[in-house]
Amino acid sequence: xxxxxxxxxxxxxxxxxxxxxxxxxxxxxxxxxxxxxxxxxxxxxxxxxxxxxxxxxxxxxxxxxxxxxxxxxxxxxxxxxxxxxxxxxxxxxxxxxxxxxxxxxxxxxxxxxxxxxxxxxxxxxxxxxxxxxxxxxxxxxxxxxxxxxxx
Length: 151
Fold this sequence. Notes:
Blueprint: H1 13-32, H2 42-65, H3 76-96, H4 98-107, H5 112-148
Helix pairs in contact: 1-2, 2-3, 3-5, 4-5
């Protein structure tokens, strides 16, 4: 992603900034919940999803700004970012609506809320890993085609 992020956004500082903010939120949640055993790190998980969504938006915005077209079907970076972006986008909204889903779970004898969460996460996991596998296939094809030209 780094090669497609504009220089004025100072890409090198983004990972460190995100990691620092995540660490503060995570440690704060652990302290507030009095240890690891009694805490689901909701805010740090939601922040991580939001942060990766922002990075994905920046990547797509930069792709739109490029004066040359990319061939998305065979671009491994595009598929890595797309898989991560869609997965984190789904996680962000599942986290936002988690209290409502839990309320649905508690009010429903058939456990419909948990079923909904499991189905959504399974669908987005398949998309995420499918996109990453396809990205690795694209990278493999790119590597094979570039190495065969040297032979």
